[in-house]
Every structure is written in C-alpha cells, then in structure tokens.
Amino acid sequence: MTIPFFLNQRYQKILRAAVQHYIATAEPVGSNTLVREYNLSISSATIRNTLGKLEKAGFLYQPHTSAGRIPSDFGYRIYVDNLMIPDHNCTKNIKRKLNQQLDSKVYDCNETFLQKVAQILANLSGYIALITLPQILPNELHHLQLIQISPKQIMFVVVTNDYKTQSILVDIPSILIHDNKDRLDKKLQIFSNFLNSNLKGKSILDIPNSTWQKIDQDFIDYSDFLKGLLKQLKNNLQLSISTQIIIHGVSEILRQPEFSQMKQVKMLIRLLEEEQDKLQSLILDFPESKISNKQVNIRIGNENPLKSMHLYSLIYSTYCQHNVPVGSVGIIGPTRMLYDNTIPLVESTADYLSKMFS
What we know:
By secondary structure, the chain is α+β, with helices and mostly antiparallel strands. The protein folds into three domains: 9-83, Winged helix-like DNA-binding domain superfamily/Winged helix DNA-binding domain (Arc Repressor Mutant, subunit A); 88-136 and 241-357, 2-Layer Sandwich (Beta-Lactamase); 141-237, Enolase-like, domain 1 (2-Layer Sandwich), CATH 3.30.390. Helices cover 49% and strands 18% of the residues. The protein contains 15 helices and ten strands. It has a five-stranded antiparallel sheet, with helices on both faces. A three-stranded antiparallel sheet has the order 4-5-6. It has a two-stranded antiparallel sheet with strand order 1-2. Helix 5 (88-101) crosses helix 15 (339-357) and helix 7 (111-125) packs antiparallel against helix 15. It starts with 8 loop residues before the first helix and ends with a helix.
C-alpha cells in the first residue's frame, strides 16, 4: 500500500513512533510520552494535534476517551509497507541457528527436520511458527483437448505424463453459443492447440505468466473463457493439501499481554485445533506474482479472511523444490508484533528450506 499523499515527514515520524511505542509496551501512547522517549524535535502541542489528525484519518484510535492512542490495522499496514526498517540482524541470527543446530544429512529434510526448524523459528520470534509438510510435485501436463458434448456444454480433457486422465465439464460461453457445430469444433481445436503449445510438459504450478499475456494478445475476444479454463484446471489438478501443519510456539505467544485473559487463549487454541484446514489453505494461498518474486505475504488483523484471525497478524512465505512451491512457512502473532524482526525471520527460513529441499 502506497503512503497517502497527506502524510508528510512530520506525520510519518509521529506515526512511526506511535506504532513502535505500542509494539514495545502494549500501552496506548500520548504526546507527552513521544516527546519524552523519542527524539522527534517536535513540540508536545504539535504532536498532540498530529495524533488527533492521524486518528481522524484512521491510522490510530483511542480504546477509551481518556486513554492515549493505539494503531489500527490500517496504521500497522502503512507502517509495514512504508515506515518500517527490517532488522537484518534477525536474518543473520536465524541462518546461524539453523546451520548450527540442523544437519540435513542427519534429518534428511523429513518431518523431524521441519519440527526442529519450526521450533527455532518460534523461539527466535516469540510467536507461533507454522510449517506445512512438503507436497508431492505434480505430474506434467501431456495433452489437453476441448470437446463439445452437448449444445450447451464442453468437456475439457486433461492427460498427465503418467497417462492419468481428468475431465472438466464447462458451459459453452455466450460468445460461442451461437456458432454452429462445425464452426465451434474448429474453434475448440484452435484453443486446444494453443493450450498444448503453451502448457505441454509443464507442471500445473509452473504455468508461466506469459501464457496469460498471449491469451490476451491472440484471443482477446475469448480471453475470459480461456482464463476460466486455466483456473478450473488449476483447481482440479491442485496438489492434495497435506492434513498436517507443524506448529510450535504456543507457549511463547501466551506470554504476550494480549493473552492475559482466558477468552483470548481459548480463541487461539480453537483456531489452531478446530480450524487447521482453513488456516492451512490460507497459508498456502499465494498470488502468482508473489511466488515469482519470492515475497513475504502479510495479513494484518481484519485483512485475514478468517474471522478468528482478526486479532492476529499472519506473515508467511512459500518454500520451493527446484523453484516449484511445495509448502509454506509462517508466523502468527498479535497485530502488535515486531514486524521488523518477524518478516526477515520468515523470509530467511523459507529461503533456507528451499535450498534444503532443492
């Protein structure tokens, strides 16, 4: 998220200090505290006025009328995207710990090995570490064919290199519905040739972005139809998701003040025990652009689609085998988490696992 145009340097300094203070103390922040503890070179009156404007803009809010202010999810998002400086010492620390404590020759990149990695990540972060077990790489696509089977339906037949066949039924799109059978058959054969020329020999997880661009260039009128086919193909041939997530660090996170009440503890335990399938699909959900750029994905509070995750932030990244994503590593913590530490930890752990599995 780009920084809003009205956040000048003064506003940014005060917002950064307010977020950092709340992350460090879990205490709402006021102008006197910022003057006393941060070298902002700004008067208390100016800071007080700026805090009020930041609250009106939605970056901060007051839990009580007499209290100081704390960051909103939107405030954290602006901080993470624009104001935070990652602590690269964390990168060095976890790389050193992983190399010192783990020997891939001993653990052979098995479940015990991942348990150790998750334990190290949880200890260093102070939050809950999640690692999905690696998924088996999918078979390559061998042949794809579109066949009309009724006046209103098409069968999309997909054969993998082990000669297993899957078929997907799709409705004939409105742009093709008025073609006679011969004309439709010719178009379906052209589409089949296009799909084979671009996808044959590729894994479903390794479809290049150029395929989508060529759809727009060569078949602009049919791009929605063909993109829909590729989406259904991905859904049908998606790797079977492992039923297990390795979880470490529950005792670490319970030391945070957010979990001083039993209600919050029960909500967290319920999330990890009863909604593990939903949590798993969430941390395995990666936009293609982020996979190609090896970026860390960050969901803060209400940005999480799971309601039970609205009190937490989730930071996660994919790990790969020969550049093909096979699993995910992530951290769950309160929205008041040390993002400048946690993001480098997740990124470095994902890179380490990618090297080990490749």
